[in-house]
Amino acid sequence: MTAKLELILLGESTIKLNGKPAAELPSRKAEAMLIYLVCTQRPYSRELLADFFWDDRSSEQALANLRSLLSGLRRSFKLFLEISRQTVAFKENSDHWIDAVAFQELAQSDAIEDWETAVSLYQSDFLAGFDIRDSRGFEEWVTLERERHHRTAVHLLRRLVQHFLDHQQYEKGIRYAARLLAISPLSEWAHRQMMLLLARNDQRAEALRQYQICCDILAEELGIDPSPETSTLHDRIRAAVDSRRHNLPVATTPFVGRALELSQIQAQLVQPSCRLLTLVGPGGIGKTRLALQVAQTAVGTTLNGVFFVPLAAVPAPEFIIPAIAEAVGFTFAGAAPPKSQLFNYLQAKEMLLVLDNFEHLLKGSQLLAEMSQSLPEVKILVTSRERLNLQTESIFEVGPLPLPNGRTDEISDSLMLFTQLAQRAQISFALTPETMPDAAEICRLVAGVPLGIELASAWVRQLSCAEIAQELAAGIGFLQTRAGDVPDRHRSLQAVFDHSWTLLTAEEQQTLAQLTVFRGGFTREAARQVTQASLWTLTALVDKSLLHREANGR
Asked: For 491-524, what is each residue's pLDDT tens digit?
């Protein structure tokens, strides 16, 4: 006959046989001995056990007590114990499970799921409330085990709290921070993490209350004030309560698709090593709209705000600092250099700065490198037609929207955007089985570029989708707008290209013009034979989003 023994020791002790509570043991000391034998899993001489559990009795009395106790244990646990005249041991090969052992094993894993399972096993202290008389040895062993498991629980909970804070899963982080504070209430680190989690979860009043809880418990238990680090965090949160959250402009176009890109950018920004991220792509590809969507999702989770810094009208690099100051609401005062004043203001701030249209200010990119190195809590998201070429820069290439695949029952992201923009131009517009093929062709003719889709959709008031597609097939020259609130560089696809063209060197312009002889792509070697361009020039055109390298090397 086989049986399974389960010991639940992290909290109030429970002993189960075959999934059901075991019959009541003859005494608390019998339960203690069973637990000790199962947990330590080694043979003990009778003399050692007798002295261990009855250290205040004579050897004869202690051995007599042991014989009586073992007789009671045999009745219920004979399948799990090896008892001879000389030794007593737990059968290691018997079917058994101990929550404390499983807890420690799971704690060694690198998987978040295992850490969560482990802390779910830790209900309370090892053998909480368990007490026996006349056994200092057992009490000392319990104390050591209790401290060992407590240290592991604190370590795991700290890792879980930090993980969920870093990955912006604030609700889960708050739950584990509460558990950590329950078992380690004097940990200022735990109080600070709870304050941060609450603040980033848009519970700033609760975050301030958590600081007061920290103050009260430190004063009551230790007679001390919180550390400067904790007080500084409190001041930052209190200042954030009264400050504006963002200055983000209202989006003028719908945000369609790009769920994968959005999640990838968000995941990159939460990495501690990522301070500067550049969204790179050609004009009209949707960099600004994507950056605004990222910024909008960060408003409630960034302590001191999210601020949009439009740079298209900034004429030279020396005006970048005033543009940032204006966006964040900082006013210069005194004789100190403006950069020093701005850096001092941002030093203790947790912010996301969105610097839009940086491509004509590349000579000022060193300022962004300094900011990313000097301002540890400031994240910078840049949009640019050209990468900044900084060591501290992370790159995310923004591509066109997915095109229709030919199926009449599937609406791609590009087709969805066309439909929504067309309905804005003419409320009665509807995507029907008759209009869908031509609308899909429009999206293909503009290669899924959002600006091209926007400009084409505006024509539905005057032309049918079929007529728009015919005009596009003849050339993109008719894709332009007279709207007064559209910047000059986005009034037509030709204007987009002209703006990018002015940012090229003479050699790059010559090379790009020569490359127009190719249709359908080309290899690097073919490009060099036709243009005599160096690898550096070809790479520069890639960096400026005018050439794109495919996975097949073309």
From this structure: 555 555 565 566 667 766 666 666 666 666 666 6
**Number of domains composing the chain:** 5
Laid out side by side, the sheet with 4-8 consists of 20-21, 14-17, 4-8, 95-98
Strand partners, 280: 384, 397
Count the neighbouring beta carbons within 10 Å of the beta carbon of residue 18: 11
Residues 6+ apart with CB under 8 A from 147: none
In a shared domain, residues 427 and 483: yes
354: CB partners within 8 A, 6+ apart: 248, 291, 292, 294, 295, 306, 307, 308, 309, 381, 382, 383
Strand, coil or helix: 263: helix
Question: In the beta sheet, which residues pair with residue 379?
Answer: 352
| Cβ burial 203-214 (10 Å sphere, 16+ → b, else e) | bbeebbebbeeb
d(CA 181, CA 177): 6
One domain, residues 156 and 211 = no
C-alpha 443/C-alpha 304 separation (Å) is: 40
- In this structure, the number of other CB atoms found within 10 A of the CB of residue 343 comes to 16
Length of the chain: 554
Domain membership of residue 253 (yes or no) is no
| Helix, strand, coil share (%) of the chain residues, nearest 5 | 55, 10, 35
Is residue 180 in a domain? no
Which residue's structure tokens are 């060694």? 108
SS3 383: strand
pLDDT of residue 242 exceeding 80, the answer is no
The secondary structure of residue 446, as a DSSP letter, is T
Angle, CA 537 vertex, CA 533 and CA 541 arms, to 5°: 120
Other CB atoms within a 10 A radius of the CB of residue 217 amount to 16
**Do 9 and 98 contact (CB within 8 A), yes or no?**
yes
Q: Give long-range contacts, CB 8 A cutoff, 24+ apart: 81-90.
A: 81/37, 82/43, 85/46, 86/45, 86/46, 87/43, 87/44, 87/45, 87/46, 88/37, 88/43, 88/44, 88/46, 88/49, 89/37, 89/41, 89/42, 89/43, 89/44, 90/37, 90/38, 90/40, 90/41
Q: Does 436 share its domain with 523?
A: no
**What's the whole-model pTM score?**
0.71
If asked whether residues 486 and 509 sit together in one domain, one would say no
408 assigned to some structural domain:
no
How do residues 385-439 score in pLDDT, each as one tens digit? 999 999 999 999 999 999 887 655 578 899 999 999 999 888 988 888 888 989 9
Q: Around 372, how many Cα atoms within 13 Å sit in the side-chain half-sphere?
A: 22
Burial class (CB in 10 A: 0-12, 13-18, 19+), 375: buried
Q: How far apart are CA 349 and CA 63, in angstroms?
A: 69
CATH number at residue 130: 1.10.10.10
Structural domain range at position 538? 504-543
Residues 99 and 142 in one domain: yes
Query: How large is the angle between the packed helices 506-514 and 524-531, nearest 10 degrees?
Result: 110
Q: Is residue 473 part of a domain?
A: yes
Q: Where are the alpha helices (DSSP H) in 375-492?
A: 413-425, 436-445, 450-457, 465-474
3-state secondary structure of 6: strand
Residues 205 and 324 in one domain: no
